[in-house]
Design goal:
CATH topology of the largest domain: DHBP synthase
Low-confidence stretches: 607-612
Mean pLDDT: 91
Number of domains: 3
Largest sheet: 9 strands, mixed
CATH superfamily of the largest domain: Carbamoyltransferase, C-terminal domain
Number of helices: 20
Radius of gyration: 23 Å
Strand content: 15-25%
Shape: globular
CATH architecture of the largest domain: Alpha-Beta Complex
Oligomer: single chain
Number of strands: 21
């Protein structure tokens, strides 16, 4: 008899729900995509409703609900943190009790509200935070055994774990506990450089190549003591998160010569160098941890999860070390992915399902296309209801030939096709696409479409069979979580006379024959595109290749700064009209900006998103 298991993560950031049938992943989505509140931490009522609808089941058919975190262990940490901090820590303790523990105590009630009286049947269980990360990393991976490394800010007590998975079993061999946290260390520098914690870490990583790691020695001498096995210890003299609501304190600011950069102010060379330095320290720790878990397990495979696993530059450095033959990173590595890990852990450990040893495709995550889709009929009804002009193509092949021509002409596409992605990356279902050969594409996309900082790089989507022709990468990278260098024959060397300290000039320098996706250090965050997981997207790039000879296009998330990735046709249309995207693709329906009526009664939407 089939078993339906619902995994839930909530009440910190990026709440989500995931549904597993036996050991098959049926659906998973973040609440933010439905509520339109970025990083929405609230209980995922909408995501749960979606998961049930995707499976065509009612709430009373759920056999088990698993929460990704254990509130009692988190409460234990908060109490002991308060005792350590004394009176100074009362403010943060009170805030934590209200914002986090105040709702986590009532998880059962929230579940009952979402699913009816399921809680009365003792179907609600709790999973350790880092065990949910480990399960999300190992169980969907294409390996029957693997070393497991999970690194994040904090989950209950743990901040880092090293483990091993084989078949259905996961064992944890070692851990590092709060307050010593690589994730919180990185977040401290995110804040110091003027970015928002829990959403600005990508910006810090993107800023790092513009600087030199001249503060690295200070960081490793004063802030973090790193042992040869990758274990580490933070010097709490410089941090404020134990006894205040600030991540850093005055000692930290004095160490780096002044107060934190104010958000939206000019980025200086200092911030660039600080970003480069903390990125270097993070890579040093992650490589040492990877070496140690390799020694502990002897495995040739590595699985990664936790928020720090989204640091694709560090992942690329681990890959370059050749410690493992294979690396797989959970595409929803943050807290959202904990919902999936919790559900899978119940499937394998509680119900005793066996891990499939015959994998079809790359892994068991289905390309992470686990969110809602919309039929051709639904899309046409939406367009007709609002009288939005469109062109309809009878076949995807015919549509893609047209779109390839539009990309070649320099037009930017909002691309909406198939099931929405689970995780923070757009992978060709909810994407903005452009020509990677266009030297103006990065600045146009950043400033006129994404409304974000001009220094932030864009990712390439490349046909898997052609990846080696563009990047120093032989492995699959379907989830855009590995950074690799552009191959040398495609690079353009910069003359000494072209070197400058002006950031805009640096950004606009052409560094390769695919300049729109080549970062300042000649690197790129690569997505390999596979026919078996996303045939429509694969065929689009193939059509572009047939037309131009190039197998690479720009792929960035279909949203503007401060807004979640689009979920519905309406979300996509609004983003299309609010930006300078030229063409909107909704399945086989293509809309041209020049043909659309003015967007009425839209309000001053930018004010809502500008201060992300």
């Amino acid at each position: 008899m089939d078993k339906y298991i619902l995994g839930i993560s909530a009440f910190y950031h990026d709440s989500a729900a995931a549904l597993v049938k036996n050991n098959e992943i049926i659906a998973a989505a973040q609440e933010e995509r439905f509520s339109r509140k970025k990083h929405d931490p609230r209980f995922p009522f909408n995501a749960i409703n979606y998961c049930l609808s995707e499976a065509f089941i009612e709430s009373d058919e759920i056999d088990m609900v698993v929460f990704y975190d254990h509130p009692l262990l988190t409460f234990d940490r908060l109490i002991k943190n308060f005792i350590t901090a004394g009176d100074k820590g009362f403010e943060i303790f009170e805030e934590a009790m209200k914002s986090s523990m105040g709702v986590k105590w009532w998880v059962d009630d929230y579940v009952k509200k979402a699913l009816g009286n399921i809680g009365k049947e003792n179907k609600i269980f709790y999973c350790g935070h880092h065990m949910s990360h480990a399960a999300s990393a190992f169980y969907p991976s294409p390996y029957n055994e693997a070393a497991i490394l999970t690194v994040d800010g904090v989950g209950e007590w743990q901040t880092t774990t090293l483990g091993y998975g084989k078949d259905e079993q996961i064992k944890i061999y070692g851990e590092i506990n709060y307050p010593h946290s690589l994730g919180l260390l990185y977040s401290a520098f995110t804040y110091y450089c003027g970015f928002k914690i829990n959403s600005g870490e990508y910006k810090l990583m993107g800023l790092a190549p513009y600087g030199t790691p001249r503060y690295n020695d200070i960081i490793q001498k004063e802030l973090i003591d790193i042992k040869p096995d990758g274990s580490y210890h933070l010097n709490m003299k410089y941090f404020g998160y134990i006894d205040s609501n600030r991540t850093i304190n005055e000692n930290f600011e004095q160490l780096f010569g002044g107060a934190a950069r104010k958000p939206e102010s000019r980025i200086t060379q200092k911030e660039m160098d600080i970003a480069a330095s903390i990125q270097k320290t993070t890579e040093d720790v992650m490589i040492k941890l990877a070496k140690h878990v390799k020694d502990l397990t002897g495995s040739e495979n590595l699985c990664l999860a936790g928020g720090v696993a989204l640091n694709c530059v560090a992942n690329g450095k681990i890959l370059k070390e050749k410690l493992f033959k294979n690396i797989w990173v959970q595409p929803a590595s943050g807290d959202a992915g904990g919902s999936l890990g919790a559900a899978l852990l119940a499937a394998y450990k509680h119900y005793g399902f066996k891990k499939d040893k015959k994998f079809s495709g790359l892994d068991l995550q289905k390309g992470s296309y686990l969110g809602p889709s919309f039929s051709q009929n639904e899309i046409e009804a939406f367009l007709n209801r609002h009288n939005y002009p469109f062109v309809k193509y009878e076949t995807t092949q015919e549509r893609n030939i047209c779109l390839a021509k539009e990309l070649n002409a320099g037009n930017i596409l909002g691309y909406f096709d198939g099931r929405m992605e689970f995780g923070p990356r757009s992978l060709g279902a909810r994407s903005i696409l452009g020509d990677a050969r266009n030297k103006n594409m990065q600045s146009v996309m950043n400033l006129k479409i994404k409304h974000r900082e001009s220094f932030r790089p864009f990712a390439p989507a490349v046909l898997m069979e052609d990846v080696y022709q563009y990047f120093e990468l032989q492995e699959a990278s379907p989830y855009m979580l590995l950074v690799a260098p552009v191959i040398k024959r495609r690079r353009i060397s910069l003359k000494e006379s072209n070197r400058t300290d002006d950031m805009v000039s640096i950004i606009n320098q052409v560094r390769s024959d695919i300049p729109a996706i080549t970062h300042v250090d000649y690197s790129a965050r690569v997505q390999t595109v596979h026919e078996e997981t996303k045939p429509d997207f694969y065929d689009l790039i193939k059509a572009f290749k047939n037309l131009t000879g190039s197998s690479v296009i720009v792929n960035t998330s279909f949203n503007v700064r401060g807004e979640p990735i689009v979920c519905s046709p309406q979300d996509a249309y609004l983003c299309f009209m609010r930006t300078e995207i030229d063409i909107l693709v909704l399945e086989n329906y293509v809309l041209y900006k020049k043909d659309q009526p003015p967007l009425l009664n839209d309000g001053d939407w930018k004010l809502e998103y500008e201060l992300d």
